[in-house]
Each structure stands twice: as structure tokens, then as C-alpha cells.
Amino acid sequence: MWEKIISCDRKYDGLFFTAVKTTKIYCRPSCKSRKPKKINVDFYLDRMEVEVAGYRPCKRCRPEVDESPEIEIVREVITFLVNHYKQNVVLQDIASQVGLSPYYLERVFKKETSETPRTYLEKIRIDKAAYLLKSTTLTNLEICYEVGFQSPSNFYKVFRNLKNCSPSEYRKEISNELG
């Protein structure tokens, strides 16, 4: 267990807790706070057990919360992206919205979702474009701008990467399936 807290291994979060006798604080194994001396640490397998023993939760890693404390940041970012996908959104806009630096925001988002805010935004836009290709008679160019892409070439490239076909091919496939 000591090796897991030294390496800040997130895979063990929720499986056990580290309690520091000198500070009376308990943490997740992945907590980034300064590591205590090994002789001052007790390990607990249950959150209730550690709290009954008189320890309070760390304010940095928030072990009393079931999910990662950074998941709330990710939810805010996703909500912002879904609500603003039509606009020209840059990382600084998103960072300002959630109150973090762009670098830290991108790092947290990628750690939690395995992708960057930009790639997530592109997926939202392509999903909207696919819906419009199915349900409207708008041209590919109109759809490109409607879903927030700034250039048709980028729209076609991203669409092909995510859907493995061009927007026109996608529309034909859908009309063949329906008709």
C-alpha cells in the first residue's frame, strides 16, 4: 500500500485510504499532497472506519466523494461545449469559463476522458452534422457552418476521421437504409 501512495496510483482509489496520525487527515492513494513519514501512516479499507477513528477528509483529494474531484470540472467543460458548439471556441474560452489555466484544464480533461477538449468538441459537432445530414436537405457546406466548423476542409477531414466516410457518402448510406 505504501508503494501505491508514493506512486499516486489512481487505480487503488476507493480500495483503501491512508490516514496520517500527526495531522488526523485521510486521503486517497492518488493524493498529490506531500507524502508523510511512513511511521505516521495508518491504512484503512473502509471510509466509515477511518472517519470513526477520528480522521477528517483531505481537502485536496476529497476522499469522501465517490468519484474523482476533477470529474466535476469535466462535466462543466462538457456542458459548456454542448451549449457553445456552434461558436468558435478556443481553449482559453473554456478555461475562463471553469476558472482554470488552459494548460491545467487540458491536462485534467485528458486524464479523465482520454481526449482533449478540442477532439471532444469535434465529436459533438460531427454528431450534430450527422443528425442534420439525416434529417434536413441542407447542403454539406451549410451544415459545416451550422455546426460550428470554420472551414469546409477541416469539416470534411474530421467527418471522415470520425465516420469513415465523407458527408455525402454518409447521406447516401442513410437514404439507402431508409429507402
Verbal overview:
The chain has 179 residues and is α+β, with helices and mostly antiparallel strands. The protein has nine helices and four strands; from the N terminus they run αβββαβααααααα. A hairpin with a 4-residue loop joins β1 (17-20) and β2. α3 crosses α4, α3 (71-84) crosses α5 and α6 (117-135) crosses α9 (167-178). The longest helix is centred in the last third of the chain and has 19 residues, at 117-135. The radius of gyration is 23 Å and the shape is elongated. The mean pLDDT is 90.
Summarize the structure.
This protein has 179 residues and is of the alpha+beta class.
First and last CA, distance: 60 Å
Taken in chain order, the helices and strands follow as HEEEHEHHHHHHH
| Shape by Cα distribution | elongated
Arrangement of strands in the largest sheet = 3-1-2-4
Give the DSSP E fraction (strand runs of 2 or more residues).
5-15%
Total strands: 4
Cα-based radius of gyration, to the nearest Å = 23 Å
Q: Give the rounded overall mean pLDDT.
A: 90
Number of helices: 9
